[in-house]
Design a protein that fits this description.
With 759 residues, this protein is α+β, with helices and mostly antiparallel strands. The chain is globular, with a radius of gyration of 28 Å.
Length: 759
Amino acid sequence: MQVYGGSRVMQSTGENQAMRETAMTNPLVFGHNRLTLITPTLFRLESTTDGRFIDERTMFAYDRTSLLADSLYSVEKIEEEGIGSQYPVYRITTPALRIEYVDDGHPFSTSNLTAYFNYRGKEKKFTIRQIQRGNLGGPIETLDRVKSEVPLGNGLLSTDGWHVIDDNRADFLDSDGWISPRPYMPGHLHDFYCFVYGTDYRAALRSLGAISGRTPMTRKWVHGVWYSKYQDYSTEELLEVIDGYRRHGYPLDNAVLDMGWHTNILDNGTGHNGKRHWTGYTWNRNLIPDPKALIDTIHSMGLTLTLNDHPHDGLRPGDERYADFARSLGYDPEGKEIPQFDPGSRRYMEALFRYGHGPTDSLGLDLWWVDWQQNYIYPYVAGTNTRTLPWLNEIFYRHSLRNGKRGATYSRWGGWGDHRHPLHFSGDAYTNWDMLAFEIKLTIASGNAGCFFWAHDIGGHKETGGGELLARWVQFGAMSAALRIHSSRTPEYDRRPWLCGDSLAERSMYAAYRLRSEMMPYTYTSVRQTHDEMVPLTRPMYIDYSGSKEALRYGKQYMYGDLLLTAPIDTIGTGSERMASQTVWFPDGDEWYDFFTHEKHAGGTVAEISKPLESFPLFIKAGWIMPMQPFTMRPASEIPHALVLRVYPSSDDCSNLFRLYEDDGTSMEYEKGRYSRTGLRYERSGEWHSVSVLPAEGEYDGQPEKRSYRLELGTEKPCDVTVDGRKARIGFDDVKNIYTVDIPATPVRKSITVRYRYA
């Protein structure tokens, strides 16, 4: 037997074994075949007739630098009699897999390659011809025109324990990252990326980040509260909408203008929906006479502004900067021929960004909403195998990387690799209970393919379903990547809570909006976890509890970050309180407390949880500290100078550390290490409990020097409470029905410890 550790061979001899020394490195080349070990659970198989392999990047295989380290794999050449007949047999071992390959000179197939992996304590095998039967679902491109459940797309995660992505027709990205049509390569037979992970679903998602690049940090404000409506607002009308949020006490972070921000007089182009004016880049000054003043006013309120863009017709005669645009592309601005939309042309897109977006970007616009619905006109980038939508998402995201800010796009889901361009717009769904239920299901599964951050049309885009439906939808929105309401033009479709005409529903939404505001420190910390680990913010139970079969059985609940379990209600209620319920499974190994009533649920149990319209099933792990903030009208746009720490007691001795993450929220400085983490440790030893805020580590622009804290202690009243050894006063929050301990402003570099027990 020969044992290859990385690139060196270690020899041994034995009976019936022929030996020779050979050097082999990762990627492992066997004649015209190449096997690349990317992670312990991901390998790539290329077969050719000419030995010409592909090292260029693609939209999926975006990071070619990821290779499994030499110390993490071994290769054994086995030449024992009866194994592999006259062909050499190789055994390739990683921490998770054993791959056996017969080097018979033929392409990789079921006859010459098998991978073995552990699945719930048993060895299973994988070959490239196996039929996958247990895919757990993934995102779909859009909910446009969808009225009820439709089939999900595929994700990486499967009860089969593996998934394969075929990248053999993908176009290349050149050295500057621009799309390059795949050259004619008749000898390149296949290019399979084999994710073989058993039940380690987190490993599968980490592997996606290894080959496709990790999802970047988002701008913090996108995870806040949005107002959007398909309506042609004037300056005064939009500012009145914003002021309505202030008057009614609702938080807001981002205001959106749909197509009405630009002129609608253009009549040349392919158009959409029977109209030719959906694309435009000239401000409608009849409605918004001074765009710069409007943007400045919105910014002065601590808000951001998003504009809708249907880019499919580009700039046309009648747009203010058309003449410059046309001349830059070699066209006569007065001529009959106009430039046709061409996203595959670097020259065309640079001109579109310069003359279409540039003037508005220079005013301080925060985000373009890429409302692409033209697959029926431009399904593929001309001359390539690449679909137009994912390519637009790629280049719009790059365009947004300006002035030291993080990239930001808002567009429909473009498929594998599109997790690099958060966040995503699910489209114009109809309004009914079936759609709410399906949107929840879609959101739970979408992270399986890297679609981590949906910002849905909360309440639905079309039709009205009444206050109760809107309230339940808002509760779901409060537990998703962004709380964004949106609807069509019809006045009664407006999803602003105070317009619903149902006082109970409005009280419910008021509570959900406030909860969204208060949870932002926890939400943003969980967003950082998505960046670091490629684990979804809204994740199915089987990611965190893959060892339990119940995690697959209860599909209407999900984890929101590491500590919260929620099961949004998706059915109409009964009685004066509109009571409705969900069946909730509480995973074993943890204790769970109702976030609102503080009722305890033991792990390993199932309960039917009934909730009035003003509440919904939301549970927190015992023995951990969840960071929150006092309610603020700008939850995702402000850096909190006070924190609220919610904790429920563990029944057993333990020591659990949650690390709060913070940065400036918008810049790329986090990539340079300019951010802060603050350890929040809960400990129980015997009858004594302690909550410690550890000194902040790291710094960022805007970081507060001091902070005050409110500790919220669930269950019964604590006693013998001390803060850093000094006796402390116990308070009570009548609204939340919870005991509190207040700590005055303290330097963030100083530790604080609260000790207490229960009588």
